[in-house]
Write a structure and sequence with these properties.
Strand content: over 45%
Largest sheet: 7 strands, antiparallel
Number of helices: 1
Helix content: under 10%
Distance between the termini: 10 Å
Amino acid sequence: MEWLRRDQRYQVRIEVGAALIFTRRMLSDGVLSTVGLTPQRYDEETDAPFSATRRQTVRFGADQIELANGTPTATVPGVQGRPASWCKSLGAC
């Protein structure tokens, strides 16, 4: 896990995998606010042998979230991108 911070902005990067089976890279990017981590974007890439790299992006707005398939949905207070929620749970942020 890599935690980067510059002023009120943060990035959390995590890479996980199993040798010769898959590799997954996750990135959460956002701001530190009075309510904690406020994500603005979540990116995920998954590589597996004999298949194309799968990429997904979720964008977080003030009033809605754009899911990886492009579908907008209402935002939920306190919602986190996967790496940010892991970082919070592990007490690393």
